[in-house]
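User: Hi! I have a protein structure encoded as tokens and I'd like to know what sequence might fold into it. I'm fairly new to this, so please keep things simple.
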């Protein structure tokens, strides 16, 4: 499939280029409810509410009571604000990326002195929220790949409130909108040199 190259998008009009039997994919009651409620929220509040409100309305209509937050330490301030908002209505459980304080050396990872010794721990984030029995988990700013591990190991359904993009102020899609940035996309990036680099202090809100 090369849907990104298609200009007609005839499937939107009920004329798919590929006939599929997708109905059986939604025989699980939870899968069917997730799909149905998502469509309800989209239709009833189209262009009227922001992503935070959309997430909350989705959780209400799903009947979720316990919400988990899996966040990067660098967006701790945003996680705190979101937690305060959600706590007015839901039971909130949150886990930051450095939970457990395992070192990169313990995982036999290459250590870079400018980025810190402690490893992110996305599987532990998922395990803790699994143990808390959360109904729905929200990801805030986990690194590429770390988010993949969290999605893989989370027992509850997951949504992403926002992705982290240190260069573009967490507005990753700007790279696709801005022609000046877009012309540079895909080029092999230059690695940060190891020599002469000082260790960066990772205070919350600076990652």
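Assistant: Happy to help. Inverse folding works backwards from shape to sequence: for each of the 207 positions I chose a residue that suits the local structure. Here it is:
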């Amino acid at each position: 499939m090369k849907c990104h190259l298609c200009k007609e998008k005839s499937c939107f009009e009920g004329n798919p280029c590929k006939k599929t039997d997708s109905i059986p994919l939604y025989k699980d009651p939870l899968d069917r409810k997730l799909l149905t409620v998502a469509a309800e929220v989209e239709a009833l509040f189209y262009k009227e509410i922001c992503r935070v409100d959309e997430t909350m309305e989705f959780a209400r209509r799903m009947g979720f009571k316990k919400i988990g937050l899996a966040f990067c330490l660098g967006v701790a301030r945003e996680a705190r604000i979101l937690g305060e908002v959600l706590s007015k209505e839901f039971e909130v459980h949150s886990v930051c990326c450095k939970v457990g304080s395992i070192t990169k050396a313990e995982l036999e990872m290459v250590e870079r002195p400018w980025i810190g010794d402690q490893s992110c721990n996305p599987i532990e984030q998922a395990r803790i929220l699994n143990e808390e029995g959360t109904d729905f988990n929200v990801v805030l700013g986990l690194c590429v790949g770390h988010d993949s591990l969290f999605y893989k190991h989370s027992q509850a359904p997951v949504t992403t409130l926002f992705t982290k993009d240190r260069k573009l102020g967490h507005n990753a899609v700007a790279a696709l909108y801005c022609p000046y940035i877009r012309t540079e996309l895909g080029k092999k990036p230059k690695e940060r040199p190891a020599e002469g680099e000082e260790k960066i202090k990772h205070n919350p809100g600076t990652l």
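A useful reference point when you look it over: The chain has two domains: 28-63, 64-207. Feel free to ask if any position seems puzzling.
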